[in-house]
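Annotated sample (chain length 463).
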Amino acid sequence: MQFDHIFYPKSVAIIGASPQIPYFIKPFMEPEYDGKLFLVNPNRDEVLGLKCYPRLQDIEEPVDYAIFSIPAKYTSGALRDCVDKGVKAVHIFTSGFSETGKEGGKELEEELLKIASDKLRIIGPNCMGVYCPESGMTFTNGMSKEAGEVGFISQSGAHATQVPLAGMMRGLRFSKVVSYGNAIDLDSSDFLEYLGDDPKTSVILLYVEGVKDGRKFMNALKSACNKKPVVVLKGGRTKEGARSASSHTGSLAGSAKIWEALFKQTGAISVRNIEELIDTALAFSRCPLPRGRNVSMITFSGGSSVVQTDACIDMGLNMPVFGEEAIRKLEKITSSVGGGITNPLDSYHSYFRPGGLLEVANIIAPEDYIDSMMLEVSATYTRMRDEGMHDEFITNVTEVKRYVQEEVGEPFMVALPDTCYTEERAKLQEAFQREGIAVYPSIDRAARSIFNMYRYQRFLKKK
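Output written by the structure step:
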């Protein structure tokens, strides 16, 4: 219940409200937020046309959630007011605490925690707070108002903004996002426990630099991974990165080897960067889990096949040879310009023939030695531009996706490499995302996402 007041508050007070922080105020003025908003600032009568109260206690109605946008030296007094008012949760946006490494920062955090005691919960300080499109909660403009199934827990405020915005461009939608900063009270472990049980979240993303209670974190991570995929980007893996993490949120990053052992033991999927974090979330949210690591690929040229085979093998996937029966069937419906029928399959002429790609998929996907399928698109852009064949191609690919994923139960991904034909590529990406297809800018990134899903499938089998 304590998290309901965080993600679904019926009333919010912004302490220190001013025109300089419209990104906190304006979202609560949108119709998506149906709760009550109160502004507190003793030096102003109104902000953005809304009344300002001199003190929190001057608000006659109950307040569930308070946001602090005041200098660090005033946070203790404001928190005492929140306790007296009966506020249930506080988000301290303010920085200037232990992350600075300066004298008094750590002591101020300890004072805040003592004031809060067991009376209210604290997010932060030094963080962006909460984004929950279902309730209208957000911390900046431009975030999607459409709720999805991906949850994101971030020690970094910038990543808490960047990942949902970048994910939105890839067709991802989020259930809940929280930036928790210095984590003097609620931390990554608490939010892992919550999202692990949240029926509206099916995939959890986590950006973490360090934790204060290793045992608690391990138990929370393992519990969550047993219920749903957890994809983790660990900040501070290198000595230099660890030094940066210490100055960012005051965290001790710890040994990279210890972290990797922890992820392996708990079933968490570790990734290297933001792009892979989003790529992997897209795979888990759009595709069924692969049974194994064997992939099939349809490409548009023999040269592309060679390069993409290397990419898949480097990633830890297998590219099995088609069986004799499958080859005989494929020879009847496709021609391979670069040579014989093989995997990857050079089947350019099937791309635009009505039902051509579906015929190919009907032969390849059901084979028991195939676990997933990828389709590469690139040279086809010119034909779509010159002959206006977008709709036919989109129909062809959508038919394949529905067959491979819904009937056969395998992942299906499309790679749309960057090209000078930006308009054609954008049309395809938008259409495929609308159809729920996992779209990637390269086979390399699609292959890595399949391998990450395979890693999680392997963990589930070992449980």
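Annotation: The longest strand covers residues 174-179.
Annotation: The mean pLDDT is 91.
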